[in-house]
Design brief:
Layout: E1 11-16, E2 19-25, E3 42-45, E4 47-52, H1 91-97, E5 100-105, E6 113-121, H2 128-131, E7 139-143, H3 146-156, H4 163-179, H5 190-199, E8 204-209, H6 212-223, E9 231-234, H7 242-248, E10 251-254, H8 272-278, E11 283-285, H9 296-309, H10 316-321, H11 325-330, E12 348-351, E13 362-367, E14 370-374, H12 384-391
Parallel strand pairs: 4-5, 7-8, 8-9, 9-10, 10-11
Antiparallel strand pairs: 1-2, 3-12, 5-6, 6-7, 12-13, 13-14
Helix pairs in contact: 4-5, 8-9
Length: 393
């Protein structure tokens, strides 16, 4: 399953120097090339999670590993998830075992502007910098609605207390950024400079937003500044405005079936992803969880089945793109990963069976053509933290 066209039966993938050289039926391997026979198995691109908090809300979940929200003010565009990411998080190995090769790590949603996200490869490394996807754009996490007003106005008695204050405050910050110019001899204002990069399109906006009306308000607000979010995240009511999102070229990052956890999620429906896909929206599934990230292939299967039950004609290949090609576009890395095509990085998952089956599991996972996970020969834990626990008497 290439995520770029129809599913190919009894096909081959040729890899050289960490990249895909060819995909097709009955390819002839050049002399000296290692041949791996996986007859009866399925091959897909590596799964990409466009909304993760691995490493910043690491496991085990303790106060010590809670580094995702800087709740000292509603505007924190200068902070970076990369700087608090813990590469020893045991959840990383579980995600890799679920076929995930790339994650987009974001700050939490406490703030109107929560900080900068980073796209990481799930390779062995000692720091987030070593895991960064080469040339991946920086992103900016924004949030609208209940979270900022509850965590500031309702809890601390400061702005924003209402949704109208959220919009007014964000508009003013964006206007300040539009007018910002660093004066010679003066220190760089990192916060305002980051928002200025947002307006220039150098930093991609990933906007936490549940309700359809609030997404439309944000589209209008960013339109005042000649730009738009790259995607709305969670977006449980995106199906209500799918035509507007499609015409604006804005993506939607959604769950398969989460809903009802608070008032903003009351109108969530399981057919959300399928309806968005049918309308031409770049829709992606995400985990927002160290547990759901282990089975995003099953989440895609659930969303596909929900669409079919609702009468939406969605193909299996489209559902695969919800966890591969589409999140790659949302993160601005689609030229490098997301599909099995010549020239792309050799991020591959070999599944024991149909990846949309609950009985299938990832047997081998490759990143840049290097085997990063082998279920038959797992070896010691990747995390030194867990290695110490398991080796203790």
């Amino acid at each position: 399953m290439t995520a770029a066209g129809p599913t190919l039966a009894r096909a081959d993938v040729l890899v050289a120097d960490g990249r895909i050289s060819a995909v097709g039926v009955d390819l002839v391997a050049p002399p000296g090339v290692e041949v791996l026979d996986v007859s009866g198995h399925w091959i897909t691109p590596g799964i990409i999670d466009p909304h993760s908090h691995l490493g910043v809300y690491a496991l085990p979940a303790t106060t010590s590993t809670s580094d995702g929200n800087e709740m000292t003010g509603p505007f924190k565009p200068e902070i970076r998830a990369e700087d608090s990411f813990w590469p020893q998080d045991p959840a990383i190995e579980r995600a890799l075992a679920g076929g995930v090769t790339t994650i987009h790590v974001l700050p939490g949603s406490a703030n109107l502007v929560g900080g900068q996200g980073v796209t990481l490869r799930l390779v062995r490394a000692l720091s987030a910098r070593e895991m960064r996807m080469p040339d991946a754009p920086t992103t900016m996490k924004l949030a609208c609605g209940e979270n900022p007003r509850r965590l500031y106005g309702m809890a601390k008695g400061v702005e924003p207390q209402t949704r109208m204050a959220e919009v007014a405050m964000l508009r003013q910050k964006l206007e300040n950024a539009r007018a910002y110019k660093q004066e010679p001899g003066k220190p760089l204002d990192f916060a305002t400079d980051a928002l200025a990069k947002v307006l220039r399109g150098e930093i991609l906006v990933q906007n936490h937003c549940y309700r359809a009306d609030e997404m439309l308000v944000r589209l209008d607000l960013f339109g005042e500044f000649g730009t738009a979010p790259r995607a709305f995240h969670h977006a449980v009511e995106a199906y209500k405005i799918r035509d507007r999102l499609a015409s604006a070229g804005v993506g939607a990052v959604v769950w398969a079936d989460w809903g009802g956890m608070k008032m903003e999620l009351v109108d969530a429906i399981p057919a959300n992803a399928a309806l968005l896909d049918q309308a031409g929206v770049r829709v992606a599934l995400h985990s927002d969880s160290p547990y759901d990230i282990q089975r995003l292939n099953q989440e895609a299967a659930k969303a596909l089945a929900a669409g079919k039950r609702a009468g939406v004609p969605v193909e299996r290949e489209a559902a695969l793109r919800w966890i591969t090609a589409n999140p790659a576009w949302i993160l601005g890395i689609d030229a490098r990963v997301g599909t099995l095509e010549p020239g792309k990085a050799a991020d591959l998952v070999i599944w024991s069976g149909d990846p949309f089956s609950v009985y299938a599991h990832a047997e081998q996972v490759y990143i840049d053509g290097r085997r990063e996970f082998d279920r038959a020969h797992p070896g010691p834990p990747r995390s030194d933290f867990e290695l110490g626990l398991q080796s203790a008497p």
